[in-house]
């Protein structure tokens, strides 16, 4: 199995800027499937879609669903990743927050403490009061 970096995942789904790179990535992924997508790559993927490509939450969610549902990709914690994607669609927090909470829960954590009031609205989090 091989892993891919964020820039490859971006080219796989958004080939407009670099069509030759996109074609190479698609061929690589199809020939090596499934390829590993780490949680850090997913977080960077969302961050780049928001900051560089200026996509809104719905467009980002659509891309996350495509990544998560694709048989060409595999994840360290597929169930936690899928839950984080769905929570992102419904909740006020960032995708990274939901992924952190779900990965921590999968690792046996009872709660994830945070100062983020939006993340704290989800039951996997607790607001750290000072």
Question: How is the topology of this model organized?
Answer:
Blueprint (H helix, E strand, L loop, with lengths): L5 H8 L5 H14 L2 E2 L2 H13 L5 H13 L3 E2 L3 H13 L4 H12 L5 E3 L10 E3 L3
Parallel strand pairs: 1-2, 3-4
Helix pairs in contact: 1-2, 1-3, 4-5, 5-6
Secondary-structure element series: HHEHHEHHEE
* Order of the strands making up the biggest sheet: 1-2
Shape: globular
| Helix content, binned percent | 55-70%
Q: Count the helices. How many?
A: 6
Major beta-sheet overview: 2 strands, parallel
Secondary-structure content class: mainly alpha
Mean pLDDT: 93
Beta-strand content estimate: 5-15%
**What radius of gyration results from the CA coordinates?**
15 Å
Number of strands: 4
Distance between the termini: 45 Å
Low-pLDDT sequence parts: none
């Amino acid at each position: 199995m091989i892993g891919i970096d964020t820039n490859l995942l971006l080219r796989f789904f958004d080939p407009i800027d670099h069509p030759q790179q996109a074609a190479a990535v698609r061929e690589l992924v199809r020939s090596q499937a499934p390829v590993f997508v780490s949680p850090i790559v997913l977080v960077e993927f969302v961050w780049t879609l928001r900051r560089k490509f200026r996509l809104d939450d719905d467009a980002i969610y659509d891309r996350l669903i495509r990544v998560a549902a694709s048989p060409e990709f595999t994840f360290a914690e597929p169930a936690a990743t899928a839950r984080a994607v769905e929570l992102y669609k419904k909740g006020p927090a960032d995708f990274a927050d939901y992924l952190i909470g779900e990965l921590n829960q999968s690792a046996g954590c009872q709660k994830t403490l945070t100062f983020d009031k939006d993340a704290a609205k989800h039951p996997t989090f607790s607001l750290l009061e000072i």
